[in-house]
Write a structure and sequence with these properties.
The complex is a heterodimer of chains A (152) and B (155). Chain A has 152 residues and is an alpha/beta fold. Helix content of chain A is 34%, strand content 17%. Chain A has a domain at 66-146: Nucleotidyltransferase, domain 5 (2-Layer Sandwich), CATH 3.30.420.270. In chain A, strands 4-3-2-5-6 form a 5-stranded mixed beta sheet, with helices on one face. In chain B, 28% of the residues lie in helices and 23% in strands. A 5-stranded mixed beta sheet of chain B has the order 4-3-2-5-6, covered by helices on one side. The chains are: A alpha/beta (152), B alpha/beta (155). The interface between A and B is large, with 51 and 41 residues. Strand 6 (143-149) of chain A pairs antiparallel with strand 1 of chain B, so a sheet runs across the interface.
């Protein structure tokens, strides 16, 4: 049972001072940690929505390459949607090759690049992927880099 | 010792308080922005190439391993070159049926112990139409543990 009293209680001191100095220290450490682990490389990419990368052990992506995304519904070359089918893919890769050839002709320090980055969904059947790879290889893109999700 | 240039004035003690509240505001915004824009998925790449384009043969190596993933979940492995081997690996005893890539790794490892030149060889991964990309990547990853270079075939 609660004991009732009519005596005046002494007022509780409500002077809570927040330790802002320690909070600033914590925030600084968190910020430094996040910035350290932040991907700041020249070649940072993330797969589009709807693409689940296969899990495998791969090396770090270090160089720029023509990015081709293959999902179950669509194919994108450098972010541009391409109709499924060999003729449309061949035209798209030919366009990219012509663009690169033009850059090479204007700037001798740039070399013709055979690298292509394949960002494909793990459930895509090989028949779809083969069409893309064959079209790319026909235009000289024979250095395939398969994007995978790391195991760790 | 008294400062001769102080001209009789007493030194003034200055207490400077840094306003930490505004710093914390800045840090909170920066952390939120960094967390929102950070990518927590570690993406890597598997380097491979086209084994044969328009009939151009792959580079010469001591031996060449051909791995074919079939729609019926079996794997056909052939070695040509300094030695010849051929084996068909049936699907594993799993439900649903899956390609027994662990057995592929064991097979290649066994062959490489008997024929060390296999470690300097190349491999071609081919696949039938319905095989998902995930299994091809796994086959490349398994083969790379033994052979020096893996390429995609059947293009």
């Amino acid at each position: 049972m609660v004991k009732r009293t009519f005596l005046k209680r002494p007022a509780i001191e409500e002077d809570f001072s927040l330790q802002i100095t320690s909070m600033a220290d914590i925030f600084t450490i968190i910020l430094i940690f996040l910035l350290k682990s932040f991907a700041t490389g020249q070649f940072a990419f993330s797969p589009s929505k709807g693409i689940t990368l296969p899990v495998a052990v791969g090396s770090a992506a270090q160089s720029e390459a023509l990015k081709v995304e293959v999902s179950r519904d669509a194919i994108l070359i450098e972010g541009r949607p391409i109709a499924k089918g060999a003729p449309a893919l061949a035209r798209a890769f030919q366009h990219e090759r012509k663009r690169q050839n033009l850059i090479v002709s204007k700037n001798p320090s740039v070399s013709r690049d055979a690298r292509i980055l394949i960002v494909a969904d793990q459930e895509v059947p090989y028949s779809d992927l083969r069409t893309v790879l064959t079209s790319a290889a026909t235009q000289g893109y024979t250095d395939f880099k398969l994007a995978v999700a790391g195991r760790n | 010792m008294r400062n001769p240039f102080s001209m009789g004035r007493t030194p003034q003690k200055q207490e400077v308080d840094i306003n930490l509240a505004s710093i914390i505001d800045c840090l909170t915004v920066l952390i939120t922005f960094t967390l929102a824009s950070a990518s927590f998925l570690s993406i890597g790449v598997i380097e491979t190439g086209a084994a044969s384009v328009n009939g151009v043969a792959p580079a010469k190596t001591p031996a060449h391993v051909s791995v074919v993933l079939r729609n019926d979940h079996s794997i056909q492995v052939n070695v040509r070159g300094s030695f010849r081997q051929s084996v068909q690996i049936p699907s594993g005893n799993t439900a649903p049926a899956a390609w027994n890539l662990a057995n592929l790794g064991v097979t290649l490892d066994t062959w490489s112990k008997a024929h060390p030149e296999l470690l300097k060889s190349s491999a071609t991964i081919e696949s039938e139409s319905a095989v998902p990309y995930r299994e091809i990547v796994r086959a490349i990853e398994t083969s790379r543990k033994t052979v020096a270079w893996v390429a995609l075939g059947g293009l």
